[in-house]
């Protein structure tokens, strides 16, 4: 997908992610920092990513965030360290996504396995190619992943035949 098309497809949901965060925000899989401009003024963003190269690009583009190279499966923060946690298109690439969900109010903008069977079957057929090519999983049932990690799912907004989800969740108290 060209970056122009994906920006167009995602811009309104990126804005929704921005509207749902507050305070000190952990952005997991920060990448080159595309999400940063969608967050409101006044939030402090901590961006973590496994790729030093991605964060280097974010740094060069002056993304206003504290950047740390870190594996999302081994987050070095205590639970409740953040007011919000945002996942933008990263649970599809993290090998064990359930390990990457810490305690806090959360929002996930992800591409997922569609709830529509014909679409899901196409995704299943394409998945081995995309995993081999980009280590990107097109068949993840991300709402289930999030629930199994202990998050109470508050809302799921689906678009583009259910291939994209905006999931808002709440971590259990304590
Ligand atoms: C598709 S990019 C999304 C980047 C950005 N969040 C955005 O909205 O465009 C996925 C990002 O997740 C990062 N990532 C993959 N596995 C990771 C892991 N185990 N820990 C931390 N970051 C990871 C990748 O390096 C990449 O920057």
Write a structural description:
With 174 residues, the chain is an alpha/beta fold. It has a single domain (3-170), classed as Rossmann fold (3-Layer(aba) Sandwich), CATH 3.40.50. Helix content is 30%, strand content 24%. The chain contains four helices and seven strands, in the order H-E-E-H-E-E-E-H-H-E-E. The protein has helices at residues 3-20, 52-60, 117-134, 142-148, and strands spanning 24-28, 44-49, 66-69, 84-88, 106-111, 152-159, 164-170. It has a seven-stranded mixed sheet with strand order 3-2-1-4-5-7-6, sandwiched between helices. The longest helix has 18 residues, at 3-20. The protein is globular. Bound molecules: S-adenosylmethionine. S-adenosylmethionine is lined by residues 29-31, 34-35, 49-51, 54, 71-73, 88-90, 93-94.
Quick overview of this protein structure:
The protein is built from four helices and seven strands, in the order H-E-E-H-E-E-E-H-H-E-E.
